# Entry
Amino acid sequence: MSDPVFWETLGLTLRVSLLSTLILLLMGVPLAWVLAHKRFWGKRVVESVVLLPLTLPPTVLGFYLLLLLGQNGPIAQVLGFSWAFRFEGLVVGSVLFSLPFALNGYREAFRGLEPDLIQTARTLGAGWLRVWLEVILPLTWPGILSGSILAFAHTLGEFGVVLMVGGSIPGKTQMVSIYIYDQVQALRFDRANQAAGVLLLISFALVYLVRSLEDRWKSRTPSSVR
Amino acid sequence: MEIAYTLERPVRLSLRLHIRGFTVLLGESGVGKTSLLKAVAGLLPARGEPFGGLPAERRPVGYLPQHFALFPHLRAWQNVAFPLVRWPRTQRRERALGYLAQMGIAELAERFPRELSGGQQQRVALARALAREPALLLLDEPTSALDMGTREEVFSGVLERLRALRIPTLAASHDPWLAQRADWIGVLTRGGLLQQGTPEEVFTRPASLEVARLVGFRNLFEASVGAVDGEWLWLDSPLGRLKALRPAWAQPGRRVWLGLRSEEVFTLEGEENRLRGRLLALRAQGVRWRGYLEVGGASLEFLLPRYRLEGLGLREGEEVEVRLEPRFLHLMPD
# Structure
């Protein structure tokens, strides 16, 4: 592929997606656990807020983020830095945008876990750390991984949020989907075609991986024991 | 050993119960048996002794939920080795195999839980609980996840092994079969613990009408005490005037409940408590027959082995004479 800008763009997109996915993993797993197992006041509100990015137009989400993170936003005024039109801003936007995808995957994984297993593990002398490392994670990792992969794939192709927050500066904040749009606008269909093909391949490979994980995960859930 | 626990949620419950050998907490579903076991295991907030205030992981109990909760990603011996973290890694497998052997299933060590039958899963779960070296075993409905046909055979083996190990055990159950094989029984209802005692005591001398129903008394009549004479008394009942053993509390004129087991309607020869009635219906129940006699407007249920029925030559619609043994008539306060 002849255009060096494309490779830069692809590299940036992968870095944003990977970092967002890792942040989602650290943030989303505890959050999904709490949502799947705890009852607390205002739980519905929290559930609705984290699902909001599914229905909200990405430009609306991006717009609010731009206000929040921009030069004159509250964060800039209080903390003195602005993440708009920067790598960090892209990551924040991506995390919020893909949160529902990751959470759904994690929550399904936790819901399939029998509460009896955790309780019994505790009566067998295991503290919370052992329960997580030796019971919960071994039984739910395929679900957690598939949620993460979906979030990663979803971030790869995002458009509206990153356009608003990042501003599509080539080599700095331009993601692949915006690159393709720009190439089409400039009538360079060959470049758009190549970039689109690469995204198609990556997406297919990821979804295929998720499907195989789901099969494996289903065969391990406790309900199949009986 | 005695447990004394008070729970507020999910059910309000407060009880004090002796644990003597294999103890069964008998009660219908929904009265809080499972909640009590979980409270003793530290899995539900509750006040009580022993183990009060300790987190679940520090209580020396072996807890078996109804479906045993074996870890599906671990082999049988790895399940048993789960609580053995105090031992060096190299010894865990050998110790786990030892506990499996105690339960008589050493040959299943390499299987995964999904490759085991219900009874085998139960034994693995017991071996795992024993590896915790518990001061008390808690079993939730231990016979309910076993196949009906082989339940008695399968669980009798488990019971023998538990008795041989002399570990105090509390089993929550609604299964009278299991309760009859216990060393000690507590009867739990919504109103709390109604009675505790040996199976012989609870099954023949239930303390109240509710307990009598739970332990299988099918003939229950309201009656009143007519006359008393030493250790005997005479009852005015819907069946007629009956002689019975006198409980200390029974005074003339007192209203009582009269209970009689269906198995004890046709009894030995004798002159007392002879009743005439019409045989309303006979129903086969396996190798036994359940019949209904109309006596003085009341219906008396009986249960006879088929050879006795044939020996007596009973037919529906016929007049029949029965005799109720005075010692088997059980009185409960109204």
